[in-house]
């Protein structure tokens, strides 16, 4: 278990639990979690991958759980690579390139995001690739939002989508596979 932390080099751990308001920032480094990474076990927590000034980062993990009130924010070009990703109700994935080698279940929010740099606000698209995806989750309330950047989903949907999709003006929501 770790509290607020900033990576200053590539790091590998067996398991990761962020909780009680903890924040982990990878900057341009790679965080490799061999087992399960739980973001917000009992209270909220967040992970920021990459940095507007330092460049792109990477989080690689076996199973990633993003619980209610917790989030992962990936700067454009930064990567989240996992075997299984579960975004629980109230959890959020913001921007970046997300890849689930086995399955992604979204009961929370998948969204493009706005970033900040010394030069102003930036758009951060979200690109999702998965072997299979349940876009609206088990509860069928999962949301997909293209607010401050485009969202691209490259994964076969495992069932019909009953959640909410929101696309702001000048943004796109693109599906690389069939839509049910």
Compact summary:
The chain has 180 residues and is mainly β.
Overall description:
By secondary structure, the protein is mainly β. The chain contains no helices and 20 strands. The strands form three sheets. Strands 2, 3, 5, 7, 9, 11, 15, 16, 18 and 20 form a ten-stranded parallel beta sheet that branches. β13 (113-117) and β14 form a beta hairpin. The radius of gyration is 15 Å and the shape is globular.
| Straight-line N-to-C gap | 40 Å
Form type: globular
| Percent of sequence in beta strands | over 45%
Low-confidence stretches: none
Order of helices and strands: EEEEEEEEEEEEEEEEEEEE
Number of strands: 20
Roughly how many Å is the radius of gyration?
15 Å
Which percent bin holds the helix content? Answer: under 10%
Sheet of most strands: 10 strands, parallel
Number of helices: 0
Q: Average pLDDT across residues?
A: 89
Estimated structural class:
mainly beta
């Amino acid at each position: 278990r770790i509290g607020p932390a900033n990576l200053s080099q590539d790091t590998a751990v067996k398991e990761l639990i962020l909780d009680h308001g903890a924040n982990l920032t990878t900057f341009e480094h790679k965080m490799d979690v061999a087992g399960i990474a739980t973001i917000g076990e009992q209270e909220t927590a967040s992970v920021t991958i990459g940095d507007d000034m330092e460049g792109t980062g990477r989080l690689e993990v076996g199973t990633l759980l993003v619980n209610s009130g917790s989030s992962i924010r990936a700067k454009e070009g930064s990567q989240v690579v996992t075997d299984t990703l579960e975004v629980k109700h109230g959890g959020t994935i913001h921007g970046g390139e997300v890849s689930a080698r086995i399955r992604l279940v979204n009961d929370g929010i998948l969204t493009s995001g706005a970033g900040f740099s010394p030069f102003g606000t930036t758009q951060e698209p979200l690109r999702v690739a998965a072997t299979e995806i349940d876009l609206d989750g088990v509860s069928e309330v999962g949301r997909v939002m293209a607010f401050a950047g485009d969202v691209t989903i490259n994964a076969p949907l495992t069932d019909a989508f009953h959640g909410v999709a929101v696309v702001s003006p000048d943004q796109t929501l693109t599906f690389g596979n069939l839509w049910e």
